[in-house]
Write a structure and sequence with these properties.
The complex is a heterodimer. Chain A is of the alpha+beta class. Chain A contains five helices and two strands; from the N terminus they run H-H-H-E-E-H-H. Chain B is mainly alpha-helical. In chain B, helix 1 packs parallel to helix 3 and helix 2 packs antiparallel against helix 3. Classes of the chains: A alpha+beta, B mainly alpha. Chains A and B meet through helix 2, helix 3 and strand 2 of A and helix 2 and helix 3 of B.
Amino acid sequence: MADRDYLGEFEHIVVLALLRLGDRAYGVTVRQEIEVRIGREVSIGAVYATLDRLEAKGYVKSQFGDPTPERGGRSKRFFRVSAKGVAAVNRTHRALQSMTEGLRLFERYS
Amino acid sequence: MRQACFVRPPRIAAWLVELVAPRRDAESILGDLFEEFSDLASKSGLASARRWYWRQSVKTIAHLVGAGFRVAPWIIAAAVVMGFLLLRFGSGLPEKLVVALLRTQRPYSNTRVDAYVLFLAWGILIGRLIESMIIGCIVAVAAKDREIVATTTLGLVFGALTGLGLMLLAGQWLENAYLIPFLVNQFCSSIMIVIGGVIVRESRSAMARRTSRA
């Protein structure tokens, strides 16, 4: 059943941000990428709550880096999308595409 | 950037985030907030960075509390119900202990009834607060990684019931004046429950830090 799951709206955005950032994906960069790309101010707590949920589902993996002085001696937690996560993004995209196919959204509502 | 390294974010906000965040996330969340705060302080000034830090902290706490309920609803619910039952059925314990203590220790002379009443009243008051704090500790231990979420929920439930009591008394203060100290004590008990949660959380964090250093 879990393999048939679709990503929620914010989960989808976070996974896409991780895919865009690649090796540089950690809390700050993910938050800023979302803010810059979609113009929505998000809290670091919302990002972590979503990343924890995605990690519990097996869509995301994380590892801690070394502590650095510019972070007050605290370490970064880097995230990357797992193969299962990529499959979930593709599944969600296909579902959205098939649901919007033939709707001519831009013509009708612009 | 070098200058920004000496700027400290608001301590209370950072402490509150650390209390609410799951222990695994706390370090990276605080590190991320610190990094962005330092960057913002060097670009836009300290006041603006502090405002940003507080705004982010409040939003982060709200999200983490919500996530706590979603991730472990049954553990939190069970811990809160257990705490409520302990408060309900253990409510007479401080009185019994204080009376027993006064009988054995006798810190007053037999002729001074007012001294006895004073010791009794203050003893019960302090006993109830200590009892609430211990129950807060028990609830926090049972709630595992969600100590503050569970104890704050219990404190709010307890506080809401006290508020209901105050509303029922509205307009009849003179007839029920004797209940006012009791209700004030109940409010203080709600705070003591949360303090119990904070004690457990801080102890666990200190232990985790010691283990990671070793």
